Structures are given as structure tokens and as C-alpha cells.
Amino acid sequence: MLSQLETVLEISAYGTVILFAALAGLLGLMYLLTAQWPARAAQWLLETVPGSEPATFGRITDAERERRLRAVAIAVAAACATVARAPGVPDRTPSQWRRLHLARRLGSRVARARARS
Q: Each residue's pLDDT tens digit in the chain (117 positions)?
């Protein structure tokens, strides 16, 4: 019985170590993916990557800003066009036809209620 207990405890100890190592690795990976890079790393990237210029790294150029403004203007125009031609928007004021039938329905309910009493 004692050797079986030792085997179970040994297996659970190995499993616990592996579990916590995996959790630590996962947390470390999440930290690396979400951490802000320091300025030295950005400078190293500028020096290492060919064709990258310090003036455009992390900043929006005028051409990019113009392209984004045009995309926003197109999106707003498309949204306004779909709202303007949305079918089935009811009119706030009821028509005479609707008033007539509503009055008839309300009047008949009162008559039914009186007849039941």
C-alpha cells in the first residue's frame, strides 16, 4: 500500500510541476505579446529593417490621413443612404382610415363589455 501511495504522489508531483510550468509559459507569452516595446527596441528596428525611416515610423503620413478621411466619408455617405431609403418607417400621424377603424374597434369593445355585464 505504501509503494502505491508513493507512486501516486510522485505522479501528482510531476503533473503539478508540468502544469505550473505550462501556466508560467503561457503567462510569459501573453506578457511578451502585450508588453509595450521600449524605445531602444524601436530604434533597433529602425536600424535593422531596410527602407524604414524615423519620420514615418509610428506616425501617419498626409497621404495616409487623406485616404482614411476619404474612407470615413464614404462610410458615412453609405450609412446615410441606407437610412434615407429604409422601408417600413411608419408615419407618426395616423391616417383617417386608421382612425376610423380604431374608433370602430374601441366602440365595439365598449358595447361588448356592456352586453356581457
A: 789 999 999 999 999 999 999 999 999 999 888 876 666 666 666 666 666 555 555 677 888 888 888 888 888 888 887 776 656 656 667 677 788 888 888 876 555 555 665
SS3 of the chain: the string is CHHHHHHHHHHHHHHHHHHHHHHHHHHHHHHHHHCCCCHHHHHHHHHHCCCCCCCCCCCCCHHHHHHHHHHHHHHHHHHHHHHHCCCCCCCCCCCHHHHHHHHHHHHHHHHHHHHHC
- Which of 61, 98, 3 lies closest to 53, judged by CA? 61
How far lies 9's CA from each of 17, 20, 21, 26, 98, in Å? 12, 16, 18, 25, 81
Q: pTM of the prediction? A: 0.33
